[in-house]
Amino acid sequence: MQKLKNYINGELVEPISDTYLDNFNPAEGKVYSHIPDSGETDVLAAVEAAQAAFEEWSTLPIQRRSDIMLKIADLVDRDHDKLAMAESIDNGKPLKLAKRVDIPRASANMRFYATALLHFASESHQTDGEAINYTLRKPIGVAGCISPWNLPLYLFTWKIAPALAAGNTVVAKPSEVTPMTAYLFTELCIEAGLPPGVLNVVHGLGTKAGQAIIEHPAVPVISFTGGTTTGKQIASTAAPMFKKLSLELGGKNPNLIFADCDFEQALKTSLQSSFANQGEICLCGSRIFIEQDIYEKFKTAFVEKAKALTVGDPLEEGTNIGAIVSGTHKEKILSYIRLAREEGGNILTGGEQVTVPGRCENGYFIAPTVIDGLDHKCRVNQEEIFGPVVTLIPFKHEDEVIEYANSTAYGLSATLWTENLKRAHRVADQLKSGIIWVNCWLLRDLRTPFGGMKQSGIGREGGWEALRFFTGSKNVCIKL
Ligand code: NAD
User: Considering the domain 253-445 in this protein, what is its CATH number?
Assistant: First the structure.
């Protein structure tokens, strides 16, 4: 059975303890490879390598840095099919989704920051006729980048690309649940000639390898994407050490459907925003608020479309909903469906596990689940489920739905559907979310700020925001 390796100082190496963790194929519910169970000593070696590489990488001419990153992007494109297959097997997502979204976005992330760094400029300020200030932006040092399992290579590269482009060296830890594509990526880094130590990837548990990265005093900047509880734990370690922190955390995103919307478009896109990637996207709209006048019509059509989705083998072309990422996560989702029943919800469709016959008979599958009859304040409508489960809630007035939408501890994204331009601006302005989509969902421009309010995180990724995050500013004031 394949054993993955850490990538430290330009080489693929075994964990120092020589211990490994099981890596599951969630569609089959069985172990298919092993990953290093790395600990503090592996992280120490990775940080030392990153420190040693910093001087050379941070002073490399930016064109050269850009060229190496573009070479890696080319290799990701070359290996598109292989990486998509690996992502689908490791995560359970439909292969066609990995082909269309995950892998193209991973190479786009590398390309975007490889070219952004060529255009990154600093500011200058003239102080009346008395002085001139210019602000330098310098790479910080060794960046710690920790990513989750839902969009494995997509989010891994979304962090390491700006960190490297800004001239930092990196110690990264992909999720132990989906380590495969980050491992394959390290092979491409070697092939592309990335200098040793510039990127180091340590596999293993969050509480062990991840925590060791956060605690290391020579890692002054941390970029984390994952759950809100983990984010709190990371902040409690990193804040007293005065580390620079970016936290992209959970969500409980509202999807507001006004009666004056383009009904067919709202229906079609809401199906995607509910169930794409098995609902395991931090931006999925899990609470659908529908204006009373069209509530019954929308409910009937939405449930019918959800019922028609094919839950099945992720590798088959006709599959819409693949496997849930792990047995543990499947149980968590099912426990929320039970809670929905206890809280008085009606399961309109789904609500149960699905057995996919053949090679996937022991896999982790859940039918797309639609629930109504729940109050917006109940736990099912307040807590992140992160699976193929959505609730439908009617509303009468704009003010009322804004209150419902803003009623959770989260504030990542929100979607609203209306053909009324004034309403679109008015409601977008009042929603307490970092990302608002009007008449669309997950339409991304990598230049825009990405991140959440409230317990969905602090800091913003994307565009210049990420390059600013991964650099420290230094102002120089010269008296004229
Ligand atoms: P998680 O918090 O369990 O794990 C995320 C990463 O953190 C993993 O690599 C894990 O090993 C590591 N980790 C865990 N404990 C750690 C610790 N003490 N110190 C350092 N690292 C530690 O999250 P998950 O279950 O992998 O991902 C799902 C969550 O991620 C959901 O809440 C989802 O909303 C969120 N998410 C947010 C965004 C966003 O952009 N805001 C994007 C994707 C996913």
Answer: 3.40.309.10
